[in-house]
Amino acid sequence: MSTTPASGGFANIGKTVVIKGDISGSEDIYVDGQVDGSVQLLGHSLTIGPNGRVHASVAAKNVTVGGSLEGNIHATERTEMRKSAVVNGDVQTRRIAIEEGAYFKGKLEILSDNKAAAPGVSAAAATVSSPKPGSSSPEQNK
Question: pLDDT for 24-37, tens place per residue?
Answer without folding.
Answer: 999 999 999 999 99
